Amino acid sequence: MTDDKRETFLRQANVAVLGTVDARGRPHGAPAWYLYDDGIFRINTDRGSQKHRNIERNPNISLVIDRPAMPYYAVMIQGTAEIGPPFSDADNLSLSVRYLGEELGKRYAKRSGQPETISLTIRPRKIAIFDPMGG
Fold it and tell me: pLDDT digit string (tens) for 2-29?
């Protein structure tokens, strides 16, 4: 997959799986919606969630974003996550509309978000592509 195709894919509303490591060294994977811009991923999650606690202890993460239908492919990322403040109202709305569409996204955004959330900023260190169709 070319860089242009990869960028186009990452800008689509695919659900990612965020991998972290818990306090006992066990892997933890969780689905996540994300915003993507300039090679950086941003995820909103509940304050005190397993993802949040794991990243506080160990910022190393994996992120897998795949297309589960033909033509199959995936972007697999290794990197680090930084904990930040909750998404702004505009970012929360953008995320909600991205995954749910305009009407449902606006309703969802009104009842989700601040202040019981935190943001995760993910900076890739390594990116691998799975593209069995060679597209």
Answer: 688 899 999 999 999 999 999 999 999 9
Backbone angles phi, psi at 95, to 5 degrees: -65, -45
Q: How remote is the C-alpha of 69 from its chain's centroid?
A: 19
**β-strand partners of 12:** none
Separation of alpha carbons 18 and 2, rounded Å? 23
Question: Is residue 1 predicted with pLDDT exceeding 80?
Answer: no
Other beta carbons less than 10 A from residue 58's beta carbon: 14
The helix (run of H) or strand (run of E) holding residue 16 is strand 16-21
Q: Whose CA is closest to 56, among 31, 17, 16, 21?
A: 21
Our separate counts of H helices and E strands in the chain read 4, 7
**Cα dihedral 102→7→128→101 (10° resolution):** 10
C-alpha 95/C-alpha 109 separation (Å) is 8
Cα–Cα distance between 65 and 112 in angstroms, integer?
23
18: nearest Cα among 50, 5, 47: 50
- The confidence band for 110, taking pLDDT boundaries of 50, 70 and 90, is confident
